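Bit of a strange request maybe. I'm writing a small parser for C-alpha cell strings and I need a real example to test against, not something I typed by hand. Could someone generate the C-alpha cells for this chain?
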Amino acid sequence: MTSGTTPLRLILIVLGFGILAMLVFPEARYHFLSQTAPRPVTPRGDLSSLERSTIELFERASPSVVQIIAQRGGGLFTESDDSAAGTGTGFLWDSAGNIVTNAHVVQNAARVAVRTSSGGLYNADVVGTAPNYDLAVVRIMKFADLPPPLPVGTSADLRVGQSVFAIGNPFGLDQTLTTGVISALKRRMPTAGGREIADVIQTDAAINPGNSGGPLLDSAGRLIGVNTAILSPSGTSAGIGFAIPVDIVNRVVPELIKSGRVRTPGIGIVAASEAVASRAGIDGVVIVQTAPNSPAARAGLRGVDPRTGAVGDVIVGANGKRVRKLSDLTDILEQVGVSGQIRLTILRGGGEQTITVDVVDIAAR
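Reply from user aminoacidic:
Good idea to test on real output. This should exercise your parser:
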C-alpha cells in the first residue's frame, strides 16, 4: 500500500462513519442537514397565457364588482358594523351609479349600502325590483370616482364547455374569483314572482351564498349572466350554479332604471297547475278563469264551469308553437311583448279553434 492512498482511505472511512451515524442517530442528520437560514427562491418561468389572461380579466373587471349589504332592521350603517344584514354582490351597470343585483338580495330591506372594491361604503337607493326575473337595480349618488361599467355580451350564442368567470363575495369574502365552464344551457328556474326564467345558464364555477347578484363573465370579460342560485343540499357550492342570461338582463334593467318596474306581458288568465292538468290527462294549459275585462275575457276564452267543474278551454298552441305547460305560454308572451297580439290554439268541445288575443301589462292591472 502506498502512502498516497492512505488519506483517501481515511476520508472514505470518515464518510462511512458519518453516514452510519446519521442513519443510526437521526439527531445527527438533523444537525448536519437542517436548513437554518431562509432558502433561496427558485425562479419560475413566465406565467402561462391562460394564467395571464385570467389575471388581466380579473384586474379589469373586479373594480366594477361591489358588495351589497341589505339591512332588514333599524339603525345606520357604519364601516365597522354591518351586522343583522344580508349580503350579496352587484356590479356597475352605467356611469350614473346604477348597480345590478338580485331582487332577493334587497327584498324587504330597510336600508341598502354598497361597499366598493376600494373599501368605501355608500348608502344606496333601491331604484326598482323585478321578482319575476330576480333582478334589481340600486343606485349610489356618489359616483365621481366609480370605475367603468362592465362590458355587456350576449347569451344567444353561448356554448356548453365555454369558459366562464364569476366574481363575487361568497360568505362575505369580497373580490373572490372562481372559474369553470358552462355546464348546460336552457335551464328553467322558478322565481319568487311565480313565473319561470327561461334559458338559464348552468355553470360549475363555484357559486356560494353571497355570490348572488354578481356577474358571470366570458373569457373576453363581457357580462353574459347574473349569478342567482345554487343547487345544493348543504347550501354550499356543489358544482351546480345558475345565472340569469344577459339578454334578459339587458331588457329588464333599462326598464327598471326608467320606471322602477318591469312590464309583465299577459292575457289575464288563471291557469291550473301542471299537476292538476296531468292528473286529468290534459296536455296543455287549462284555463281556470279569466280576469274581468281582461283581453282573455274580451276574446271569449272560457274557464272551468264553476257549477259543474267541467273543463273549458285548454291552450295547446301559441303563434304556431306547441304549448304543453304555462311556462311555454309565458315564453311566447315574453317574445310578443306588451301591446302585441298572440294567436292561441285552444281545445274546445272536442275541436281546435284559433283565437287572437291582445297582450297587456298584467302587472299594472
